[in-house]
Amino acid sequence: MMSVAEHGLSDAFRDFCAEAFNVRMPLEYPPLKLTTVNSPESLPEALFIGGDPSRGMTEGGDDACLFMVDDVFYSGQVMGVPLKEWLKTYIPALPKIAVAYPGRPAVAVPQRRWAKKRIEVFANPDFYRERIVHLFKAFWLPRFWSAMRLYVQVKAGTNWHTPGHNGGNAFADSPFLRGLYEAFGSTIFRADLSVSVESLGDLSSPEVQTPLSEAQKMAAEIFGSALSRYVTNGTSTSNKAMLMTLLKPGEVVLVDRNCHKSVHHAIVTSGAVPRYLPSRWNPRLGVWGPVSLRDMQSALESEELPRPRLLVLTTCTYEGVLYPVWEVSRLCERAGVLFYADEAWAGYLGFHPFYTRPDCVAGRAMRYNAVNETSGAHFAVQSTHKTMAAFSQASMIHVSLRFKALLEEDASPQFRWLRRRFAMNGHGSFEKFTHDLHEFLRYWHSTSPHYPFLATLDVAGVQMRLEGMKLVDERLKWAAAFRARVAAECGLPESECFAGLADIAGCEGDWQAQGYLKDPLKIVLMLRNPEACATFKKALLKSHIQWEKSTSTTILFLVTVGTVEEHFECLFRVCRLNRALIGRPEPGNFAGAEIANAVEGRPVVLPRDAALCDGEFVTLDASVGRIASQFLVPYPPGIPVFVPGLRITEAMVELVRRVVETEGVKAVHGLFCRGGHPPFYVEVLNRDEESRLLARME
Hints:
By secondary structure, the protein is α/β, with parallel strands linked by helices. It is globular.
């Protein structure tokens, strides 16, 4: 029966792939192969090297895309944990089938990520071919992309609607623009449709059942959320819509000062009051470390009024530090505060068992991906385009099952405010929250979204479900091998060539013991001094290699699902030729106290009021002591130094001045000048507005 089932499943899988992912040139889709495991206890050894998830997948384990579990196996345990819970923790995204046998007691499977089929379907797969293909469609069919492709290839006729290029005619028929049309290909233009094509769906009406709404429902199942929404203007838009949904004007949000500027923008647009968590500047590397659990706990338990409603953290950070999201969630829920994770740089975390950790409090393993079905943040936003197969600007919002439970099922008094906020008929309502979120998304969404963006969000999720474990596993192994080769070439330990958790976070406190983790797919190469770093970057450019970001002594390389093994070879050649430049930086490259002082302080005026009031331009030097009415975002260090509502200090001005002197005026977003030359201007509150708004705050 095993060979019959394998043959039948493989044929059905290829039929499905040919229909769902058809390409112009014939493609040999990989067959499905069945690997038998005789007991739940043997699963870890079959999937993980040495049975340890942190060591990577076995040769067969990394190809896993589907679990078939018979009804006896289904009730078993793995490492003392029920099989259902174990799979939810280590292999959450993959679909599972409970195979039912006649004469045995029926089993109840979870509604999400599980299906239940009789053994006859797999014992006679040729007879049940259509049923199996339909099952595969439920698991892996890109809903929106399939519908859009069908419309473009079959249904589209004469267009009398936007966009104005009319399926690419404006480009194809022009002797001047024809080259652009040919470079991009005809399909991208024909797929650039409009909301006039109602059959595909409208991003502004996700509650209407269409291929677009079905794709977002599937994304929620793939990413383990209660609700997922597509966004076509990046995580910046996600942050603004979400914070406007969750916060009321005047409410307090706890936020890492070293967050993306869009979070600061979202605080302005929501009318919230930021209470900054202590930032840790790393003067050796020129990067910001994570916020400590101790500082979070102190802020959450503070008696200061008003009480915070939301905690915002960036996980993972630009340099790859992951927070123990389960522990942050525990601290937040104890204080009645919602936990919001900006996960822009790590949307792939849920697709590989490496990103788990045993937790002594819960007595089981926990996941690092922010929104999951075990324990984590209440919300996560992801820049799908940063690390997965999506176009730039393509982003997702994920709302956790735990948040839904807090709203509708949990009766804890600390979240009484939440149930009142999203109440219908006197009770907390997830439906009311969803309505409010959709309304604020409409504030920020274009009414003419780019449909190819949406299609790539659809296929990015499906790809990660179908082959994400293999993609991430390969890259974890390639990155580890690359670091080892570079260290050997330099004659140094890896820790002297690449920044690890302790290098980034700082030596005080045992960050690893607290659950913090350095993501290996964020490679931070250390250079001995600024001169060495500048020389190394020139060598990279000469070899046509572009990095993600850098400081004066570090260079960050992102490993994504699109990184191929050849990329590591190209980078290794540059490292080998410039090995004398690589090494732990000398101390004193950055002024630690100066930069730390420049990001201290709290708003003295509500940020929204300061940003929208009447301001006046003054020179940078004359701004000391005034209240900022705009953002100034220098890089490095890459976070806002001037924020609306903050009183400007000499340390702030000195930091901006130093960046201008070393990096040029273009390195400071928001600084006004004429022709790139001094004097430089910044907008501050005029004196009348300053007096009025300060009085209001009192």
